[in-house]
């Protein structure tokens, strides 16, 4: 008497037989038939042909039969929309049934039928059910609203179901509340703008009360909802935390993790001196540890989250190192995660234990795990300086085991240790050299070669060792070849007499016999260096290397903060923000940690708040090459791509995309280029095309040069700086600066060819930036740039390009292409190139505007060590289009009131206070877009001090 | 394979990604629990030789899904006595009905087995006979009473002739012991499982002799957290039947006694294709109780071909395919410590194995909670009858590993 018999009918005409049975008069037979149909459905067989017959069985008083028919309907209604309407009547009738179970069943099934035509018939029954006297029906109906919203959002809004749903949050039954919250948060997630869950202290209170009473899934929804709320001050944050902490003892791990999320987020608002902060930290540890004793799948998710938490607040788990020790029968994915966390928690206090463990792991069976363990030892050495010695000796022990992959991993990490602690552990080199023959992986070979080259003077037979590698030069991977080339050059510089032959050999191998451009380039560079100036070569090649940083794999702080808001979700498992992998279509709200605003401090004057960053910091803000590349590539790729895109193909796409415009105009060079733009015209004609600049500016520009410095003279021009060093751009060095002359912004570039080949086909493109800067004409390099030649170009810029706010505001990312490759660099432009000529404001206007801009927008800065008096300041600023509107003398201080306007029409008002005899000025800036103040201040600094 | 869709129907082909991952993982246990595919996420658990896979389209807490899947597996276990392919096939209609009750539009509805059992009656031979005669079904046609009360875990109108309340305090020792016999890591994972068959609405409170031991606990939702915080008393209205009341963890190492020790010497000779194997087990801190049900499992290195051993007690097996040695020891009698020694045959010519096998040890101690936790008393309020009460203690090895 089991159900498995339903699976066994596979003969022909099965559907036909079922049809007959479904239409049978006997109740029993009918039910059996429906069961058979359901069984076929579960294994993926198509039984949709039976739709009318099954629907006919719907009107029955047998609950089980009804349930089964409903199950069938949910699966197939979509494929048979016309037939599905037949079922509507029964639904409407069932919604009035005296049995609440049937009412709820009907309303639940209704929502699962995803057929547009039906939805409108469902509104009335749904409205009734939302107000049903029985909570079981109400809670089912609440979920149904979310389902309906998914099918037809407009309908739900028009019918006012959302308001009814909001009312249900205050329902007397906690289950109803939980489902209402769940439904609302689902709807809010798909429509981020709808502002459905406008959380305020009252509704938060309601939720917190419901939290204690409802089921676990309801608790999860409520906690997730709470996490989106930003308390108004630390007191409120604390009181919410207090009410959430009991959830940490819940048996359901999802509840625990959601509670952890709320606490981690709100902790951000609490002052660290608070006693409560400490208590909270202590309370967080045990539940996290408990998660690790659950099933391995839960452990994995928990570990991924702990990894985030440990990075954000290492103090939470600093005493719990031992729970992360690996058991040999943990699944591999758990082992690797545990290892990662162990390293993050490693400190001087526990390093001995950690090392002992890691050494243990290095003898395990699983190769991946062993490798990671060996690497971990190296990372410990780099992280905890005091342990470096022990780590090195542990690694040496491991090398003695002679297990091939262990030795190789150990050598790779020892190289890093040498970089971190130079001149400390070189005594081990001898041991390393013994294992030279067993290395067969490129990374390990390259590491070993690096070591030999770096310490050539201490290794007697360094030349022999390197020579032995050289024999199979062409079979090596590029990584090894490059390393070998460098190592031999180093060796030559250290021991020139014996190794001349060797270096000749490697240079010729690299430059003549190799097809790899990187290798060839590097070979040529060394060759030229060595042949022109060996002393300089020594300085370059044997230069002091920067120490490597402690931890390279930390998640970037802003991303980390965002991920903390997603604890317990998929984002936290992937360590990527949801926008990076959730399918498009659904908007994703960007979440961030609440700012720390203590209630007591918030009333203080804002004077302390906008303290200017020291000028030295702006350099850090320039993104590194890698980031930049990523940024540029993301330009127009449209919706976020899920999963990591293939690097190689993406680079190509990006390059094409970026230089699309540039390439087009380059085509104009060739006579057969169809529809070539007006590029053929002489260069001067290109200038008036500058959209943002006043008419005729090109001409006045010319006159300006001849007439010398007059009232029209341009603003301050910074000396040219190197933007793209030759070593990063295969020999092309770009330096430049920005100027503004008579209303025209230009980018003055100096291109130098430091490569050995001729460069042609130059083109330039900007990434979108805050002020829409874009080249107004193509980059014109008339003749091919031959080696060692330098050319100066002034590239007119317009501000009509597309605008995208950058961080920092004044950064500009540039792509330059030539016949060799595409290069990316980024630079910061001084804001004063954007100050327009008609930036003088009327006095009355100034006064009114000053008052009109709210005080929060005011920023104060100090300009130190400026020996000028008020007149000189005023005239100097005027030449950079900062206009003095009024000047007053108050108590012996000169007050200059100044105005300026940016190309995009933003006005900035300034008050400059100058005390005679005191070289420090006080600058107050007011602007409707306060984020520019910082950069305007920097412009002031530059103009006044040069 | 059996499928059930809640929101829109997802094509069966997404599972191909899962099968791919499954093939890639050498061992079924190593299949990653979260797999991403171009449009969906697959979250899976592995239980009782079955994979439960859920397909996700939007951002959800994965723990929530994993918990739910485990709950589904628990429910099947509870309903059918086992959670196996055969059981699911035999009861496919009930399975479907259960899933329908447990989840709606992706939101869990009823996951408490107490409630589910009222909605859908578990199959019994008797009932299926009755059903087939009378034509009635195993679907309850009234609304479960507990579902909507403020104590959703308990149904109303429970009646027993014998009222009983039993508690099992079960402690598992998780430990890693290193080569030299010192403890690297040890903690106790404890649970109190209850079997409560009491009529009406009993309100229980359970107190301990030494509640301070419990500083890291997770509670069943029925427990009043405030009472615990203030008085360290577990006060609750219990669900009907079997359930886990609390689980707890004792981690400070001085509280964790290690009841057994293992003397071992496993060595492989260089170039001789054989090795020696010798282990002895003895009692350590066993509080005067007998240690029984001892089993030792060892994953031997791959190059081991066979083992030729002699146990002083119990019996051993060696599976040459999986390389797992299992020694069923039984009880320890302190007068004569059990040992297992003999020769190991290695594949000839292969290098001697680098890794040393870890020993996995199972044991059981009756009438003892190794942490020292003791129940003081159980009081019942709200009902007049006098229930039978009982507490049982047992200590077991959890993940108890000895490195060699």
From TrEMBL, chain B:
Domain of life: Eukaryota
Main localization of the protein described in the UniProt heading: Golgi
Signal peptide interval: none
InterPro entries: Adaptor_comp_med_subunit, AP2_Mu_C_sf, AP_mu_sigma_su, Clathrin_mu, Clathrin_mu_CS, Longin-like_dom_sf, MHD
Cellular component, GO annotation: clathrin adaptor complex; cytoplasmic vesicle membrane; Golgi apparatus
Domain MHD: 162-403
Gene Ontology BP annotations: intracellular protein transport; vesicle-mediated transport
Keywords: Cytoplasmic vesicle, Golgi apparatus, Membrane, Protein transport, Transport
Membrane topology listed for this record: Peripheral membrane protein
UniProt keyword Protein transport present: yes
Locations listed in the record: Golgi apparatus; Cytoplasmic vesicle membrane
Function text: Part of the AP-3 complex, an adaptor-related complex which is not clathrin-associated. The complex is associated with the Golgi region as well as more peripheral structures. It facilitates the budding of vesicles from the Golgi membrane and may be directly involved in trafficking to lysosomes.
Annotated family: Belongs to the adaptor complexes medium subunit family.
PANTHER family, alphabetized: AP COMPLEX SUBUNIT MU
The name this protein goes by in its record: AP-3 complex subunit mu-1
Organism (species): Bos taurus (Bovine)
